[in-house]
Amino acid sequence: MEYPLNKSQLLKNKLITGTLLMTAAGVISRIIGFFYRIFLSRTIGAESLGVYQLMGPVFSICFALTASSIQTSISRFVGDATGTCSNDSCGEKKARAYLYLGLTLSVLLSLLCGVVICRNADWIASKILGEPRCAPLLTLLAYTLIPSGVHACINGYYYGKKQAFVPSLCQLVEQAARVGSVWVIWQILTEQGKMMTEWHAIAGLVIGECFGVVISLIAYAREPKLPAGEYMDMKGELGAMTCTLSVMILPLTVNRVLVAASAGLENLLIPQKMQAFGYSAGDALSIYGILCGMTMSVVLFPGVLTNSFSVLLLPSISEAKAAGREKAIHTAIRKAVVYGMLLGLVFTVLFLFSGEWIGNHLFHNALAGLYIRRLSFLCPLMYITSLLSSIMHGLGMPGRVLTINLLACLIRISMIWFLVPTSGIGAYLWSLLISQVFAALACMVELRGN
Predict the structure, then answer these.
(1) Where are the beta strands (DSSP E) in 264-314?
(2) pTM, two decimal places
């Protein structure tokens, strides 16, 4: 995008200031989360951390089904409404209507999904996750769905308006509440001579989501009220708006559910195929916990710098497309590739030289340090893919993003299925690199031809 060079004008640009604010909040949140992972690795152990990580795919699928695509759609249409409507009241009215439509759908889907999980927790744990210890965790996890859905929709409203303060505040409060509650639980259990388990970590997740949704609701309640009867003249438009919102939500939901399901299958296959390689069930879960709970928390940590920009980039690209500003879109694509590459190379070098120290001194695990160094090369590819995918969503290309993500998942799943049983965990590390190369190149090719 073309940004003004004047310092005072730069600070008034919502995309820039919003990105800086979200980045600051994200960095603080990631730092808290990083040390939280270290805390968990030392209190519940690698094997229990592996069991805890098995909840990740379940939550990802549920969030993709009930909130993720709805948040993105609200963000886009709120951006369109406030960016193209010359009447401020008209734009805000449409923006809030999209929010209420999304909230209704998200709550209904969250309620349905939660009931299904609670009633089938034992079956899901034993037949799908392959770990009966996950059953009580699933039941507890179901209580996060409605709060996370409401929270996500309200965040989407603020993202669409390029107002990052409320989402940033919610993120910090949610993370602090989650970590703080688990720390309090650990203190109580220690005084009682009891051990903390993965169940208590999930309890912290529920508490964090509840705090996050309370903050978001309080913030939205403080928004200026529209004049009484302002929505009465929209009755004829609500049907069309519902259809428009659904048209974007449906492919996005299919996209994210399929990608989350593929990623979930990928994560579930890792410990199973490692057992086929010769590890015991406990050792396989331990290595899985080290890889996903320790290593990836480090490698993904710098992603906060691009994730914040990606979230706010989507409505800006959508607004630029609606206004016909093709030059601004092309500039954004070029800068996304350059910035993603430069930032990624910085962290690749950093992790190459510090990975061993991080593993040994922070996690007290040499294997984590080895994995950090080997996965450091993912950084440039991940950052470029994240930025370009956001641009593609803003341009109304969710189907192409879906295809790219599914093919990247298919590459990883194929290598896990066929190569991990014979070559061990190294084959999975190679699958991460190869799939990221494919995804980054595919996004660039799609945008170049658009």
Answers:
(1) none
(2) 0.73
